[in-house]
């Protein structure tokens, strides 16, 4: 008789890091932010507004690392990370990133930008979790500010899930949905069976913005073929100093 070994739960975190700056770009605090994220001890971290490369020559007052910010954040703690470039400008670019303590066997960034200056993406990672028969699919999301754009981007997300994620595979979708009208949960549950973890646990989405006094529900964690234990919004100290979005954390059981 073969004994079945349960897969330990995954701690998942999502946060918009605002390119490593405090609110209104007053101070560059990426090293402090890295320390705070490390203390959470998450197995998977979903990051939005992450700098890929930046031209630091001639810049003063900001101690930017020499490496891309996803690599700097992941250093020594998360052996695997993936970055998806969304916005490109003359002196650099930024996008979404996923940091993982487990092997990322494949990743692809999907451009879901709608006509206009906003550039948005969906970063899809396939992760091999020890003891888990099926690969875990993780999608890091950053949707647009306009509701009409978000509606189209949610449709693109659903199309991607249908075409790229097996029906029986564990799926985690997290990030900055900019969904202040709380429309995404109903769409994603109806179309592709994703459940919003705070709605499932507490009956409503978590308020995450602005981090100092959260009023709007912008950030989300969704799961399929998984269950969740006690999702939390991280406290204002130190996070209101480190990001304009309050981070979300959840324990995911596969």
UniProtKB/TrEMBL annotation:
One of its GO terms (molecular function) is endonuclease activity. Pfam families: Exo_endo_phos. It comes from the Bacteria. InterPro entries: Endo/exonu/phosph_ase_sf, Endo/exonuclease/phosphatase, GPI-anchor_lipid_remodeler. Residues 13-245 form the Endonuclease/exonuclease/phosphatase domain. Keywords: Endonuclease, Hydrolase, Nuclease. Signal peptide: none annotated. This is Endonuclease/exonuclease/phosphatase family protein. It comes from Caenimonas terrae. The lineage of its organism: Bacteria, Pseudomonadati, Pseudomonadota, Betaproteobacteria, Burkholderiales.
């Amino acid at each position: 008789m073969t004994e079945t070994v349960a897969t330990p739960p995954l701690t998942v975190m999502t946060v918009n890091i605002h390119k490593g700056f405090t609110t209104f770009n007053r101070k560059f605090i990426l090293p402090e932010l890295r320390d705070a994220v490390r203390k959470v001890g998450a197995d998977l971290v979903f990051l939005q507004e992450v700098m890929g490369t930046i031209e630091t020559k001639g810049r003063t007052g900001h101690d930017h690392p020499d490496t891309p910010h996803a690599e700097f954040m992941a250093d020594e703690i998360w052996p695997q990370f993936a970055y998806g470039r969304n916005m490109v400008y003359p002196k650099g670019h930024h996008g979404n990133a996923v940091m993982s303590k487990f092997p990322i066997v494949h990743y692809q960034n999907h451009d879901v930008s709608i006509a206009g200056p906003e550039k948005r993406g969906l970063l899809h990672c396939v992760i091999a979790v020890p003891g888990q028969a099926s690969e875990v699919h993780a999608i890091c999301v950053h949707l647009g500010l306009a509701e009409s754009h978000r509606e189209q981007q949610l449709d693109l997300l659903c199309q991607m899930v249908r075409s790229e994620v097996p029906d029986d595979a564990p799926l985690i979708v997290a990030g900055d949905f900019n969904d202040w009208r709380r429309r995404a949960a109903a769409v994603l549950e109806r179309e592709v069976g994703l459940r919003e973890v705070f709605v499932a646990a507490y009956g409503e989405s978590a308020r995450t913005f602005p981090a100092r006094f959260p009023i709007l529900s912008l950030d989300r964690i969704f799961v399929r073929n998984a269950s969740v234990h006690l999702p939390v919004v991280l406290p204002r100290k130190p996070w209101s100093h480190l990001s304009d979005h309050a981070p979300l954390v959840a324990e995911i059981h596969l």
